[in-house]
Amino acid sequence: MCFQSGQRMFNGHKSSLSIKIMDTRLKIHYSFYYGVLLLAGITFFFYSCTKGPGEGGTSTIKGKIYIQDYNGAGQLQAEYYAPEERVYLIFGDDDFYGLDTRTSYDGTYEFKYLKKGSYTVFAYSDCDTCASSVTPASMQVEISENHATVELEDIILIK
Fold it and tell me: Which residues contact 52 (CB under 8 A, 6 or more apart)?
């Protein structure tokens, strides 16, 4: 017969004491791993349930983009709601926009399926004195409840 180290022979049989010790070691070993897995699962659960601004909700932000068109002499030539103007949405304190859309024929835009939280809506206005020749015109908005529709004032762009 082959015996592992730590096993003893008593009257031709394995010692029940050594079997119990090995059994206890296995239980402690498995209990430790189950505890680690349980702790990891609980940690993942709490971190994955953190909800901030972004997609996946039931709320909407909408508004219109209004253009004031000036000539080279600085005189206002036309005013209208902007078709096909790009509008951007920043989630919370992010450094980069999370969504973008284009306005409809009547200057309206809409960001749907948003969670509760803080957002920044912006579009680019022309800027003759800026190095990039554009500057953002933005509005801050807070969605405080589910199924909300937040309608913003017109964002005015200079062209």
Answer: 91, 92, 115, 117
* CB-CB neighbours of 9 under 10 Å: 11
Among 120, 123, 55, 64, CA closest to 89: 120
Average pLDDT over residues 53-65: 95
pTM over 0.90, yes/no: no
Going by the DSSP 8-state scheme, the letter that residue 154 receives in this structure is P
Closest by Cα among 75, 72, 54 to 117: 54
Two structure tokens written together for 92: 């919370």
Report, in this order, helix, strand and coil percent for the chain, each rounded to 5.
Answer: 20, 45, 35
Phi and psi angles of residue 28, each rounded to the nearest 5 degrees, phi first: -65, -45
